[in-house]
Design a protein that fits this description.
Helix content: 40-55%
Order of helices and strands: HHHEEHEEHHH
Shape: extended
Number of helices: 7
Structural class: mainly alpha
Strand content: 5-15%
Mean pLDDT: 83
Radius of gyration: 25 Å
Length: 176
Amino acid sequence: MLAESIPDSTLRSDLPTYLTAEAVICVRLDYELPKDVPVKVRRFVFRKLKDNTANRVEFGTTLFSYVVDARPTARTITERVQRYRRAMKLIVEDPEIQGGAATFKGTRLLVHQVAGLLQHGVPEAELREDYPNLTEEMIEAARIYVQAYPRRGRPRKPAWRNAKPLSRQRVQRRTG
C-alpha cells in the first residue's frame, strides 16, 4: 500500500531497487504519522512533497485539518545517510582479506567482531587498548554497519550446549 502511495519512488526497476530521497522521506513520514491518518491524506501529502518539494503540507476537510512538516524528517534522513557514507569509507569487503568479510581499511579487524564486543558491553576504552589501530570513527562505523547489514541466519549454539555434564546427582522426591 505504501509503495502505491509514493509517486515515482524508485530510481531503477531492476534488482536492487533504489529509492529516491523524496521516497525515503515519505517512507519515514509514513512510519511517523499516526496510524489513524487516512490513506487519502497520506497520498495527498506524499504527492505534494514530490511535486512541490514543499517542506510543509496542509490538508483540510470539514472535520479535520492535517499539517505535515517534513523538515525534521528530511534533516534526520540526510544526517543518517551522511553518517552511513562516512562509515562505508572506512570499511572494505575484499575477498583477499579475511575471506571477504567486512574489515576496516588497512587492518584485519572484523567489523562484526568489534560490533559484537560493543554489544556485549565491552567499553570503548578497553577496545582501543586491545586494538591500538581502532579509532572512534571505526567504532561508530561498526555500529552503523551492523545496523545496515546484520548477520544472517541463526545465532551459533553455545559450546556448552553439546558438552557432557561435569557431574550427575540423583535426588529423590519426598512423598506425602
